[in-house]
Amino acid sequence: MKLLAFDTASEWCSAALFIDGAVSFRAVHAGQKHSELLTPMLGELLRDAGLSYRQLDGLAFGCGPGSFTGLRIACGVAQGLALGADLPVLGVSTLEALAEEAGEGADEVLACLDARMNEVYAALYQREGLGWRALVGPVVCPPQAAPLPESASCIGAGPGFAAYPALRERMAGRLANIVSDAIPHARAIVRLAAPRFAAGEFGAPETAEPLYVRNKVALKVSER
Fold first, then answer.
1. Angle at alpha carbon of residue 186, lines to 32 and 103, rounded to 5°
2. What is the 3-state secondary structure (H, E, C) of 128-168?
3. pLDDT digit string (tens) for 99-150?
4. Is the full-model pTM beyond 0.70?
5. Can you list the domains of the chain with their CATH numbers?
């Protein structure tokens, strides 16, 4: 199986190529340059492997939640590449990718991304087979209202923990460890996507849609 995955939902732009279990990847702190960096990054991975898009079995992408602009970029690239190369697509939650990235050896992970506007995107996951089952979320909420873990061995993952002291205070004594520098990396997305592709859980290019969770992108002047 040959899968290409990417994520642009955070300040990082990442890409990964899965070939029969082996994963190669790239990642760069992109700021606002995801649209400039992503396609060359994908092309580099394919060239290094001696592959073309048409030799792939599918595309996976981080569908959200995350940056509105980043999610639109990911969906647009997924649809365009899939249409051009006649490939199926699969969206993977960025919060589940956070759980996969930081949760090695853990049975439960609380994944949190900074949603701006004094809120976090959060989800509580429990390991299930080769992936994760959402116990709570994904939700957008104030840090002090984030889901509480059910297990004392739960790991906290994601930059939401670095951005909001209130989140760390709410979780004091409830988490075994916090990996605040974890990102929803494409290598985690492609690992999660592989068994789903094998099970036929994919769709046509037009099914690539973002998972926004929040519909509001900015505070009013009065709210600020």
1. 115
2. ECCEEEEEEEEEEECHHHCCCCCCCCCEEECCHHHHCHHHH
3. 999 998 899 999 999 999 999 999 999 999 989 999 999 999 999 999 999 8
4. yes
5. 2-93+184-207 (3.30.420.40), 94-179 (3.30.420.40)
